[in-house]
Amino acid sequence: MSRKDPLRHDPVDVLGEAYELMLERVMADFRKAKEKSAPVLHKLIDEAKEKALELEELTREEADKVAGYLKRDLVDAGEYLAETGGELKDWLGFETELIESSLLDLILQASDKTTVELLKFKEDLELGPTYHTGEIAGPGTLICDQCGEQLHFKRAGRIPPCPKCHGTSFHRVRPQ
């Protein structure tokens, strides 16, 4: 994926693909890491961001945003699994068969219940648990904070305004 590729015109597609590529890079390095801790995961996300800059895949602003989105989603998934004992499909809000298997594997590895402690660096994030129009979200279901409309993401993509009320803030669906 290169920003110089003339076939890639849609910036939404570029950021969604960058999110998935950054997640792949992080998890490939995380599997090799001797120490599995929150600071290591945080560092690997920052390194993946720098790699995207080095390869001119993203601008600095785009890379910062994508890294922030990735951190937000991994923390949210990990906290959900730890707090509820639920399954990833519950966090996603739909059956996991709808997600490309390689992406699902990466999310499962990153949010595995045994590594939830690694994801407790929420205080380091500039972004809160609220998802906003224009940001990139990983796979899952978001619910509009204004009207309750659900947005389903089968892959990483840009969050649009709510199709029902045009609201711009969302949160993850959490089964009761």
- Going across the biggest sheet, name each strand in turn: 1-6-3-4
Strand content: 5-15%
Largest sheet: 4 strands, antiparallel
Into which percent range does the helicity of residues fall? 40-55%
Count of separate DSSP helical elements? 5
Shape: globular
Distance between the termini: 39 Å
Q: What is the string of SSEs from the N terminus onward? A: HHHHHEEEEEE
Structure classification: alpha+beta
Q: What is the rounded Rg?
A: 15 Å
Low-confidence stretches: 1-8, 113-128
- State the total count of DSSP E strands: 6
How would you describe this protein?
With 176 residues, this protein is an alpha+beta fold. It has a domain at 11-128. It has 5 helices and 6 strands, in the order αααααββββββ. It has helices spanning 11-32, 38-54, 60-84, 88-92, 101-111; strands at residues 131-132, 136-137, 140-144, 150-153, 157-158, 169-172. The strands form 2 sheets. A 4-stranded antiparallel beta sheet has the order 1-6-3-4. Strands 2-5 form a two-stranded antiparallel sheet. α1 crosses α5 (101-111) and α2 runs antiparallel to α3. It is globular and about 45 Å long. The protein starts with 10 loop residues before the first helix and ends with a strand. The model is unreliable at 1-8 and 113-128 (pLDDT under 50).
